[in-house]
C-alpha cells in the first residue's frame, strides 16, 4: 500500500507543478504584454510630438513663402512704376 500511496502522492505533486508553471507563465506573459502596451503608448506620444513639430515647421515655411511673395510683389510694383516713368519721359 505504501507504494500505491507514494505513486499517488507523486502523481498529485506532478499534476500541481504544471499548474504552478502555467500560473507563472501567465504572470510573465501579462508583464510582457503590459510592457509592450507601455512601449506602444510612448511611441504614440512621440509620433504626436513629431507631427506637432512638423506642423510648426510647415507654418514657418508658409510664413517665409508669404513674406517672400510680398517682397517680390513690391519689387514688381517698383519695376512697373519705373517702366511707366521711363515711358512718360519718352513721350
From TrEMBL:
The chain crosses the membrane at residues 25-48. Keywords: Membrane, Transmembrane, Transmembrane helix. It comes from the Bacteria. This is Translation initiation factor 2. It comes from Domibacillus aminovorans.
Amino acid at each position: 500500500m505504501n507504494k500505491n500511496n507514494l505513486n499517488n502522492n507523486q502523481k498529485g505533486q506532478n499534476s500541481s507543478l504544471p499548474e504552478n508553471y502555467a500560473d507563472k507563465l501567465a504572470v510573465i506573459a501579462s508583464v510582457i504584454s503590459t510592457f509592450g502596451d507601455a512601449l506602444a503608448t510612448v511611441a504614440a506620444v512621440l509620433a504626436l510630438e513629431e507631427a506637432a513639430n512638423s506642423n510648426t515647421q510647415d507654418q514657418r515655411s508658409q510664413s517665409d513663402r508669404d513674406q517672400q511673395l510680398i517682397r517680390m510683389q513690391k519689387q514688381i510694383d517698383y519695376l512697373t512704376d519705373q517702366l511707366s516713368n521711363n515711358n512718360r519721359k519718352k513721350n
